[in-house]
Amino acid sequence: MAATRAAAQPAFPELTPHREPDPESSGWLSVLREDAPDRQQGIAKLHAMLVRAARAEVSRRASGFMIGGPESDDLAHHAAADAVLAILAKLDTFRGESRFTTWAYRFVILEVSAKIGRHMWQRPTVAMDNEQWDRLPERFGIDPSVHAQARDLLTALRHAIEQNLTPHQRRVFIAIVLNAVPLDAVTLELGSNRDAIYKTMFDARGKLRAALAANGYLNDDTDSDEGR
Amino acid sequence: MSDYPALDRFLRTDPRDVGCDQALAVLDLYVELILAGPAEPAGGTGATRERYPGVTAHLLACGPCHDDYQGLLIAAGSTRGP
């Protein structure tokens, strides 16, 4: 049985109701309004704040991808500039549910994330469609030389990947799991979006668990609170 | 307890998982709750998890979104007083 996801449910049925922004957030809103006399100063202050956050975020993620020096600073500045534009365009949607700064930081973090994903897509270290089946054991910490059962499990897993997944699911699974291509790079390669690729993997994971459970390798359950 | 814990964890799906779009749409609210409450590991566990189980489930399973969550947590946390 394939697992299902709560796609049709609202994320937050009890979402925080609209409330007046806190004084600091109100200050940001008043200075960023289109008719604010000191708007340019406000935009400059916002931009400076987001550049600092973007630099810190790029630096934090730098170990995971090959970028550094001027290129990383350039990425941070572009992310901050794009975030400022997005924030100004969506200022009317700010409802004061969080602090303005947290709301604004969300934009720049997602911009950094998207730009790093694009960077990795443009500089692939491995072809997405390679089928490096010999990497399957290490990806899941399984040593087939230890037990015959482990070898059987890996054979069953590969069979399930080849037989139980749709071509699209198989392609995405092989790219992300066997080839360790970042999910965001797969998204760009396929002209898709993160949510859709995640959903593809979610469904593939459920199918593979069901297939392995049918052969007694794993328990046939979707998640519970256990072990979290 | 599975004999293959890494595989077991990877293939385990949570039906409460709301996916990337919904989780990222409210990431600022989620982070503020985390910052306002006692320390919670991973994608949040205690009060935040109880309130937003679908987002917590997602952040525990989606590496890219968890990375975004960590980044926002650090950025927003850096502007808070002790």
List the helices and strands and how they pair.
The complex is a heterodimer of chains A (228) and B (82).
Chain A: H1 23-32, H2 39-61, H3 69-89, H4 100-122, H5 136-139, H6 148-164, H7 167-178, H8 183-189, H9 194-214
Helix pairs in contact in A: 2-3, 2-4, 3-4, 4-8, 6-9, 7-9, 8-9
Chain B: H1 5-11, H2 19-25, H3 27-36, H4 47-51, H5 53-61, H6 63-78
Label this structure with key terms.
heterodimer; A: 228 residues; mainly alpha; disordered C terminus; B: 82 residues; 0% strand
Question: Could you explain how this protein is built, in words?
Answer:
- The complex is a heterodimer of chains A (228) and B (82).
- Chain A has 9 helices and no strands.
- By secondary structure, chain A is an all-alpha fold.
- Chain A is elongated.
- Chain B has 82 residues and is mainly alpha-helical.
- Chain B has helices spanning 5-11, 19-25, 27-36, 47-51, 53-61, 63-78.
- In chain B, α3 (27-36) crosses α6 (63-78).
- Classes of the chains: A mainly alpha (228), B mainly alpha (82).
- Chains A and B meet through α2, α4, α6 and α9 of A and α1, α2, α3, α5 and α6 of B.
Shape verdict of chain A: elongated
- State the end-to-end distance of chain A: 23 Å
Percent range for β-strand residues of chain B = under 5%
Q: What percent of the residues of chain B sit in helical stretches (DSSP H or I)?
A: 55-70%
The radius of gyration of chain A is 23 Å
Query: Hey, roughly how much beta strand do the residues of chain A contain?
Result: under 5%
Could you give the count of β-strands of chain A? 0
Please tally the β strands of chain B and state the result. 0
The largest β sheet of chain A comes out as: none
Order of H and E elements of chain B: HHHHHH
What's the tally of helices of chain A?
Answer: 9
* Main sheet overview of chain B: none
Order of helices and strands of chain A: HHHHHHHHH
